[in-house]
Amino acid sequence: MVVSQNDSIIKGKIIVETNDNEGITIVNISNKTNTISGNGGYFKIKAKVNDTLLFSSLQFDVIKLKINQTDFG
Asked: CA 25, CA 65: separation in Å to the nearest integer?
């Protein structure tokens, strides 16, 4: 698979034990875009390889995730 260096859309789903996965803020700190997880924890955000996503909400600890090529699979 070839991934362009231009921003692409990553689609994901946040999974938590409590199923309280709606309304979590996702920030791409590399390109300064953000979104909020919707019903069922699903989200879409612009990103490219080596960007860092930050997931945060009042009820959970902050998590950082560096995007790699397999995330575009």
From this structure: 13
On whether the CB atoms of residues 47 and 67 are closer than 8 A, the answer is: yes
Q: How far apart are the C-alpha atoms of 49 and 70, rounded to whole Å? A: 9
Fill in the amino acid letter for 23. Answer: G
Rounded distance between C-alpha atoms, residue 49 and residue 69, angstroms: 6
Contact 67, 49 (CB under 8 A): yes
14-65: pLDDT as tens digits: 998 888 899 999 999 999 999 999 999 999 999 999 999 999 999 889 999 9
What tokens were used for 64?
Answer: 């950082």
Extract the tokens encoding 3: 């991934």
Q: What is the pLDDT of residue 26?
A: 97
